């Protein structure tokens, strides 16, 4: 089988359709809907491999082509060669930079290269200690130029590492015209570092304010523990309401978001997963035991609340268990499968989408809040809830339904 044919056979096996748009994502505007036929692609690729003026590393060319094909499907599918996979594994895991970032894909029509935006910074984190703030741009990570990055996963991998390890980032700050090289020393993290909580007193009433910065293993239990502590701190009068703060939360482990939803919803579907053709692959169902169905609840989100954070907000909104306050959320709600290849390379491919209990599609749409409030990213630099958000939250709590309606 010719080299290009073998490559195309692999793509067909994972369900990839070849178009000019998928082969060269930064040229989508120019490509339009022109279809590149299989035979033309095969011939062009073999010509490149055989006739380019200098000897061509066949494996490198094929890997580059596959990267373009897969990353052109969506922002979350990507391909790593065996060497890239080894390099990322060597960096280690468990280190915590303390910031959320978003890769803006290259746009050929606008002549804009890819760039990385810092969307939130956790107070007291390694990123905060070196002065990184929301809205800053990361131009380079450990020698890797952001302009040529394909996927969000690639960025996340470069920002990963073992606790105590360092990562050099070249940053263009919002308030400083001169880019600066900063060294991040990664810290260890656990669920307690991702959840902050306290009692807020307003108008003689006590409210729980719980910040969830990301969803990792144990976060659901940490929220449950924090809520119990706040109830004890509130004393005999109890909590008048709960403010669940998901601003800047990039998502993470969906099961942790489901666990939190289960604290407040007693029955019905919490999250539904659908694959190709709308087939239901999985449904997460609420458990009645121990659910708080009566304490008024609001969720605060912003434009950078994504993935699992959006699913949690949508679930509570669909069940009429909480009002959602803030901005339209990011709009990421897909499921990826990690497929190992015989040569050690890895294909991460989107295979399904998440749906809310009322079958709303989060991906590409986001979650529309019940009460719209503008929340600039700069507000995330403080642990305090901005006054404008607090006032909206209190209005939402006053209007919150006391009994949920079954949405699933």
Keywords:
408 residues, alpha+beta, Pdz3 Domain, 2-enoyl-CoA Hydratase, Chain A, domain 1, 6-stranded antiparallel sheet, 6-stranded mixed sheet, 12 helices, 19 strands, globular
Protein architecture, described:
The protein has 408 residues and is an alpha+beta fold. It folds into three domains: 3-73, no CATH class; 87-188, PDZ domain (Pdz3 Domain), CATH 2.30.42; 191-399, 2-enoyl-CoA Hydratase, Chain A, domain 1 (Alpha-Beta Complex). Helices cover 29% and strands 25% of the residues. The chain contains twelve helices and 19 strands. The protein has helices at 3-13, 20-23, 28-31, 38-51, 58-71, 82-91, 126-129, 152-158, 219-234, 254-262, 308-318, 387-399, and strands at residues 78-80, 95-96, 99-104, 115-121, 137-141, 144-145, 166-172, 180-185, 187-188, 195-202, 205-212, 241-245, 269-274, 280-285, 297-301, 323-326, 334-340, 346-355, 371-372. Strands 3, 4, 5, 6, 7 and 8 form a six-stranded antiparallel β-sheet that branches. A six-stranded mixed β-sheet has the order 10-11-12-15-16-19, sandwiched between helices.
């Amino acid at each position: 089988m010719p080299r290009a044919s073998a490559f195309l056979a692999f793509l067909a096996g994972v369900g990839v359709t070849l178009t000019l748009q998928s082969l060269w994502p930064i040229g989508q505007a120019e490509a339009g809907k022109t279809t590149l036929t299989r035979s033309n692609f095969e011939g062009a690729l073999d010509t490149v491999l055989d006739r380019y003026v200098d000897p061509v590393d066949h494996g490198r060319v094929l890997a580059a082509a596959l990267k373009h094909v897969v990353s052109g499907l969506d922002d979350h599918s990507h391909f790593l060669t065996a060497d890239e996979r080894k390099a990322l594994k060597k960096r280690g895991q468990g280190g915590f930079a303390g910031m959320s970032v978003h890769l803006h894909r290259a746009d050929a029509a606008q002549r804009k290269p890819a760039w990385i935006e810092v969307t939130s910074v956790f107070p007291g984190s390694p990123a905060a200690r070196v002065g990184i703030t929301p809205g800053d741009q990361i131009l380079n990570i450990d020698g890797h130029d952001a302009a040529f990055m394909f996927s969000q996963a690639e960025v996340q991998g470069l920002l990963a590492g073992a606790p105590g390890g360092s990562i050099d980032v070249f940053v263009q700050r919002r308030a400083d015209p001169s880019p600066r090289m900063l060294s991040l020393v990664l810290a260890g993290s656990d669920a307690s570092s991702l959840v902050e909580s306290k009692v807020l007193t307003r108008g003689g009433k006590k409210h729980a304010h719980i910040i969830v910065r990301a969803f990792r293993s144990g976060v659901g239990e940490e929220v449950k523990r924090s809520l119990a502590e706040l109830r004890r701190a509130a004393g005999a009068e109890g909590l008048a309401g709960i403010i669940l703060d998901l601003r800047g939360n990039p998502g993470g482990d969906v099961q942790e978001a489901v666990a939190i939803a289960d604290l407040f919803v007693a029955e019905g579907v919490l999250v539904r997963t659908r694959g190709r053709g709308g087939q239901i692959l999985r449904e997460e169902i609420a458990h009645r035991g121990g659910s708080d169905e009566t304490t008024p609840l609001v969720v605060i989100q912003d434009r950078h609340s994504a993935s699992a954070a959006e699913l949690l907000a949508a679930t509570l909104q669909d069940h009429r268990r909480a009002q959602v306050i803030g901005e339209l959320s990011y709009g990421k709600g897909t499921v990826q499968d990690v497929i190992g290849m015989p040569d050690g390379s890895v294909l991460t491919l989107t295979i399904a989408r998440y749906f809310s209990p009322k079958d709303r599609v989060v991906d590409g749409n986001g979650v529309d809040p019940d009460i719209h409030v503008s929340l600039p990213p700069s507000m995330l630099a403080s642990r305090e809830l901005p006054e404008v958000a607090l006032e909206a939250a209190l209005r939402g709590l006053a209007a919150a339904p006391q009994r949920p309606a079954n949405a699933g």
